[in-house]
Amino acid sequence: MKVRPIFIACLLIIMLPCYSVPLQHNDQKNIPSEIMLTIGGDPTSDYSVTWRTSGEETEAVAEIIKAVPHPKFGKDATTVKGSTVTEYGQSKDRNTHKVRFSGLQPGTRYSYRVGNGKIWSEWFQFTTAKKEKDPFSFIYMGDVQTDIKSLGSRALREAYTHLGHEASFMLFVGDLVNSSSDNHWSEFFYAGGWMLGSLPSVPVAGNHEYNNTTKGKVFSDHWPHLFGMPQNPPAAEYQDRFYWFDYQGVRFVGLDSPVMNKDNKDIDSIINWLEDALKENPNQWTVVFTHYPIYSCSSGRDNKAYRDLLRPILEKYGVDMVLQGHDHTYCRGFNEANITGDVKNPPLYVVTVAGPKMYDLQSDSWGDVTGEDTQLYQHIKVENDTIFYDSYDVTGRLFDSFRLEKDENGVNRLVE
Known about the structure:
Layout: H1 5-19, E1 33-39, E2 47-53, E3 61-66, E4 78-81, E5 83-88, E6 94-101, E7 109-115, E8 124-127, E9 136-141, H2 148-163, E10 170-172, H3 182-192, H4 195-198, E11 201-203, E12 210-213, E13 216-219, H5 223-226, E14 243-247, E15 250-255, H6 267-279, E16 285-290, H7 304-316, E17 321-324, E18 330-333, E19 348-351, E20 369-371, E21 376-383, E22 386-393, E23 398-406, E24 412-415
Parallel strand pairs: 9-10, 10-11, 15-16, 16-17, 17-19
Antiparallel strand pairs: 1-2, 2-6, 3-4, 3-7, 5-6, 7-8, 9-21, 12-13, 14-15, 18-19, 18-20, 21-22, 22-23, 23-24
Helix pairs in contact: 2-3
């Protein structure tokens, strides 16, 4: 007996709901988007996540649990409530949400998702830092800034594809976007996608995170809603812009360089904060990351006032590496000819660029290794007494490589 096709079709329609998973497309506006994971404090225990929605729902909820291989773990997850700000961005038609995870266990893989308690994102996973000194690595990116969707994206994606399985976080040295607007940040999230919810970001602001207004330059309205950084700034207004954290033997200190000038009424307190972060440091290594270079490597961009403000402090406290952007070229070196006084370890300065916007390299550059017209990303690996540094172009070709070794007396040696 033949079964008519129309009967089979009806039977499939009846059976289909039994085998399909209910989707949340009935409320598209409340589906979380632009999810950003950051180190929110002590990286052994404290992380933050932010996201956006476009509906009227303003509840901010996350669920988190130690990662397990079986899929039915959600019912045992811990619920964490967060905060919401409505009328986000220039368009004022979206909400932005933030949750801070605290009390996590060191060296542990976690799964989390965000939403409003009914409508959820997918589950993401990340790993907390260990308490003890232990080898780790991170990705270091210069300015992404322009043409993010079409060209900046390949730097982010190539870096993650190449190194994301090993890296503990991505460190950005400012000018993530060309202007702090809804459209530009949307391009950044388009380029980074789910990577930004999986591998923590560690950013500092650049001059393009400031907007020109009739009242002068004003800091990004978006920034504090996108990132939730350690809560140890020199003053409350600099939260998420100046911070430090310790990661398995390294102290990282992030600086909002555009406000570090003599005209800032808070400059003395900022400098005191920086000196405290550097001198009260029990770690073997110290890395400072900031947007403006101490020594410029592009034509016509020298910033003597900034250098005179920071260089003596970096030398005094033996900062091992200074990671920078802004110049849209590549330079790496100690610039020992310009060191003043008796310095145990001269800082090693790096300037790099990730996005497609390029400048000309100055003809008399101070760098031992230089480059121009090349989109780059960097992998920095710390293994006890040695830092391994590799810079790659966006085709995956090795561009620059060295290791920095620290002896038993704390003296550094560069090996090409």
